Amino acid sequence: MSPGVLAAESGVGSFQSFSVALTVAVLLCEFAMLRAPLSRSQVRIYAVQSLLVSGLAADVAIARHIPDLFAIVGLSLVLKVVVIPLIVLRLISEAVVDLVPSHRLGVATMVLLGLVAAGIGLFVVGAVHVHSRTLPTASFGLSASAVLVAFLLVVLRADVVSQAVGFFALENAISVASLVVAAGLPLIVEVAFFFDLLVAVVVFGVLMRVHHRRTGTLSTSALDELRG
Predict the structure, then answer these.
(1) Does the pLDDT at position 36 exceed 90?
(2) In a domain? residue 5
(3) Total domains present in the chain
(4) What are the two backbone dihedrals, phi and then psi, of residue 75, each rounded to the nearest 5 degrees?
(5) Which of 30, 51, 135, 162 could form an SS bridge with 101, CB 3.0 to 4.6 Å?
(6) Cα separation of 174 and 166, whole Å?
(7) Does 1 fall in a domain?
């Protein structure tokens, strides 16, 4: 085998290993969110997760020669790594609370459920045999696991901030899945996803302000009394 072929195979292997490592780190960030003692910590972990997703997109753009992805990387860095975390942290500061997230279950139980959800995502997607030209197949299973764990973060926490962060983390997981399935989507379609994210930020921001003004807390436990 010629040296050129060996170098090419080595480059592909390094790219796949690095991509899988970044995807695993994205999933681990969600487990860190489940265990985070403070909502401020969750927001900071979300910023780190968004940075990892941006790094993964940049890696794909360089390795697969998809220049449109660089625009997505720039938007992701500005919006998801800087702007959104700053907005949420400011809302927490204005509420004059350093909110300790209310757990519907114990931390150990939530992490165990997260592991079960991650396993389901890996095995179910692995059985589908999805093949990608941009990222390893394992990345798709890991992104599906990240989607399920993000759902758990929304469902198992009883405060507005954690639920908002869970929704934003869900968007990050879907972004990873889109890199696996359709990294070459037209730029206008990718930008539309960021517009939806901005709408969600505005909605959650209004919800936090109104809920805190009426109840004096960011916990959603008071809303449980509205159930019939």
Answers:
(1) no
(2) no
(3) 1
(4) -65, -40
(5) 162
(6) 12
(7) no
Closest by CA position to 42, among listed 50, 51, 32: 32
Please answer whether residues 169 and 31 qualify as being in contact, where contact means their C-beta atoms are separated by less than 8 angstroms: no
Q: 158: Cβ–Cβ under 8 A, 6 or more apart, which residues? A: 101, 102, 103, 104, 219, 220, 221
Phi, psi of 29 (to 5 degrees): -60, -35
d(CA 55, CA 24) in angstroms, rounded, equals 13
**Average pLDDT of the segment spanning 75-104:** 77
Tokens for 3?
């040296």
Which residues form the domain of 202?
10-218
> Residue 225: inside a domain, yes or no?
no
Residue 144 · residue 132 · CB < 8 Å: no
Report yes or no on 170 lying in a domain: yes
Which token pair is 80? 């998801």
Judge whether residue 215 has pLDDT over 70.
no
